[in-house]
Specification:
Aminopeptidase; alpha/beta; 498 residues
Amino acid sequence: MIDISVKAGAAAKQRDDAVVLPLLEGRKLTASGSDLQQATGKTLTAFLRKFDISGSFGESGTLYDVEGSFTQRVMLIGAGDEKKLTLQSLRRLASKAARALNKGGARDVSFYLPELNVKGTTLGDKVQAVAEGVWLGLYTFNKYQTKKEENTRALRSVTIMVASRRDLEDAEAALLRARAVCSGTLFARDLGNEPGNVCTPEFLGEQALGLKHDKLKVTVMDKAAIEKAGFTALLAVNQGSAKEPRFIVLEYAGGKQGDAPVALVGKGLTFDAGGISIKPAAQMDEMKFDMCGAAAVLGIFKAAIELNLPLNLLGVIASTENLLGAAAYKPGDIVTSYKGVTIEVLNTDAEGRIILADALAYAAEQKPAEIIDFATLTGACVIALGFQASGLVGTSDKVKKGLKAAGDHAADRVWELPMYEEYQEQIKSEIADIKNTGGREAGTITAACFLSRFVDDIPWAHLDIAGTAWNMKGTDISPIGGTGAGVRLVTEYLLNRG
């Protein structure tokens, strides 16, 4: 992560390699742009008349060696209609500018994007969004490329400019929030992008143990400990793999002693071939991302540690591979879960809910205040919501409302699906308590119905991140690969809750 700081000062007096100024639709300059225009003999006016830049969102133009200014270049980046601006707009603009300058040879730059008017936000919100845009947009994962293009003039630092020194305290606090949130998100991205031969259940356990804090306790159970504890559903899915499973428990004591924790539960399928119900070959390589629920939990814990969140957290991750082998569990098998609920296996590729059964039951046993789980659970969720929002199902209106608000603010969005009692009929089994699939209809909802059998009466929300956990096209703030979905969402939720 490159260095980002905050400062107050006029654009014409900055000595950085570049100054980034927003340009509104209709070639309208903001306050800092107007000040620079006055200080430089109206050079910007001439530039805008001669060049095809109108202020449309995302377009940009750069002036070099502007007379009357200390900076080497001025980048004007189109912000579009100011009435339509959101915090996500700021993230995208910051990312676009940072990427362009990173390739263009600017080392140290100043951003004046927070002076844009975004309805219903504070200066701190805008500073945080700009910082997030830079950090998230510059992310790369190229550790396995033996020949990397060396950019000796890559972007080194960004200064986010505010109007007054009186704003610096709020801006610095916002920057600390952004740093922690991005640190957790990038950690989750890294975990998701690791190949399956590296990111094994054992590796996930090691990453959890690597989170160090005096308020954090991490327990990683190997197969023998899992057998002793009785996590039999996890063991059933693991039967086809030569890699041992792991059951990971994280306990963060940031709140008052005795306060019930918020439980975060993650699906950690480090590779999912579907088992005996094998997946098609096309895009099977992407099944390394099936542990992104676990990555989200670990990313949130990393952010919580950096923020020193004043609440108690419980993290539970069940991790295994789901492969074909002589001992693999089969369609038609009956699996007994940790809770004692029996499961008829109709499809071995509906394995995520099976391992989550043990993780959720264990979390509920600890009597948390609420449970939020994260899972790349159903292809049906991708069909329903695409790649723009995670599916949300649950039993607590309060938790769901908080997640919706946090998701909208962070642009790590959710959309609620119903869980009417009638849907429970689809997972009834004739020979066991429940079956692990309810058929094609309402697949995301019936998967949530399955999970609901293991949370007791604890307030609970389920996040299906199958469509949001990775993106093979990339976006402005997330290059191709893992996105870290859920980290910014739930960190924002916890900040509001705390």
